[in-house]
Amino acid sequence: MWDAIVIGSGISGCSVARELSKYDLKVLVLEKGHDICAATTKGNSATVHAGYDPEPGTNKAIYNVRGSRMYPELCAELEVPYCKNGMIIFATNEAQMAEVRHLKEMGDRNGVETKVCDRAALLKIEPDMGEGVIGGLWVPDSGMVCPYTLAIAMAENAARNGVVFETSAKVEAVERSKNGWIVRTADDTYATRYVFNCAGTHADKFNNMVSKDTFRIIPREGQHLILDRELAQYTKVTICQTPEPLPGGGHTKGMGLMPSVDGTVILGCNADDVDDPDFCDSTQEGIDKIVNYFEDKWKYLPISKHVPKFPRDAVITVYGGSRAHPDRDDFILGEPDDAPGFINLAGIESPGVTAAPAIAVDMVKILVDREHLQPKAGYLPGREIKSCFRTMTPEKRRAAIAADPDYAKIVCRCEQVTEAEIRDAIRRPVGARSINGVKMRTRAGMGRCQGGFCSTKVLQILCEELGKSPLEITQSGGHSNVLVGRACEVEKGEKA
Q1: Given 34, 49, 202, 325, which residue is catalytic?
Q2: Cα 56 to Cα 103: distance, rounded to the nearest angstrom
Q3: How far is CA 57 from the centre of its chain?
Q4: Domain range 2-40+148-216+328-371, CATH architecture
C-alpha cells in the first residue's frame, strides 16, 4: 500500500510530491500525460504574481502572497531561473486610474507593496512608456519564472528522494476502501492511505466521486504568443492592462507583455471558457484576439519606442492551455468533511503557479500532523543537472568542454543547447522521453527555427539513450510519432 498517491504532475502535483518527499513516506504520482507537466502548467504566462489583486481573505490571496515570498529561495535551491523584475499595470484614462487605486487598496490589505504612480513617476521606473499612459500601479515584487522548468525541477528533487512517477497513467476512478482509498487506472489498481487531488481541469471529477460536497471546474482556455529574443532587449518590466471581469465569473488580469527568464517576450493571453478540459489548441480566433489587442495598444508599451508597430514577423510560436476555473471562484483546498484522507488542491487557476508551493506545504501538513511525522534525516535538497551552456562565461565553457566533450557539440543553434545537456535531460530522474520532453528541459527547438534544424539530431540522441528505433520516438507521446515508416528497406548489415 502507498502512503500517498498524487493525481496529476503539474505545478500543484509536483509541489506536493516534493513536500511529501521530505518525510519517510511511500509516494506515487500518477500522470495521464506522456510526461510530467503536460497540461495547464506549461500553458500560462510564467508570471510570479505578488498578490496585489486577489480578494483579501480568500485562499487565492493568502497563498498568492505566501507563495510569492517563497520563490527566491525555492528557485535558488532547485537551480531554476527566476527574475524579480516588477510589474506595471498601466492606465490611459481616469476610469482605469480609479481601478488602479482600487488595486492599491487590495494590495495594502493583502500586505503587498504597491505604488500608485502618475506619468512622471512611471517614467522614472520605465522611461520609454508610451504616450497616452497617464499613470498606473507599480508592483516591485512581481517576478518571472519558467513554470514547467520549476515543475520538472520539483519532480526531479522528489524523485531523488524516493517519490515514484508514472506517466501515461490516466486515473479513471477513486473509491473508498477499508484502510483508505483505491485508485484505478486503465492498467492498474493501487491502494493508498491518502489521495492528493491535483488533477487540474479534471479535479472536480475525482472530488465528486468521493464526496457529496461537489463542485464544477470550468475549463478556461488561454493562448500566448512568443516574440523573437531580439526584442527582449527593449523590455525588462512586466506590463499589463487593468483587470477585466469575465462573463463566466472571476476576472482576467488582462493582456500583458512579459519578458521571459529565457530571453524571449511573452504576449497574452485571451480567456475563453471551453467544454473540453483537455483543450490546449492554438486557434486562429485566440491568436487574432492577442494580435488585435497588441496592434491597438502597442503604442502604450515601452517597446514601441524601438519597434513602432506590432511586429507580426517577430512571432515565432504560439502556445496555450486551459486553466481550472472553479465555480466557487476560489482555490478549493483540503479534505471534504465526508472524505477524510482525500485532499483537494482544486481550482488552481491564476495565480496558481505562484501559490502552488505554499499550498503544498499546508496540504501536506494535514497528513504530517495526523500521522505525527518528523522530517527524514536523509532528505536531499536540490537536484543534479548539467549546467546551461548558453549562460556560461567563456572560461566556464572551456572547463565544461574539457570535462565533457559533448559540451562542444551544439545541437540547437538558436538556443545554444549542447549534446551534453540533451543527454543529461534524458538520463535525469523523470527524464525526457520525447522531442518535446527534451525541449521543455533544455530549450532545444524553442528558438527562431522552432526545431527545424535540431529535431532530427534530438531524435537520434533519444534513440541512442533509450535504445529505441526512430519509428518509436514521438513528438509529445501518444500517437505523435515523428516518423511513420521506412521509405525503403535496408539490407542486413547496412546503416538505416
Answers
A1: 49
A2: 11
A3: 25
A4: 3-Layer(bba) Sandwich (3.50)
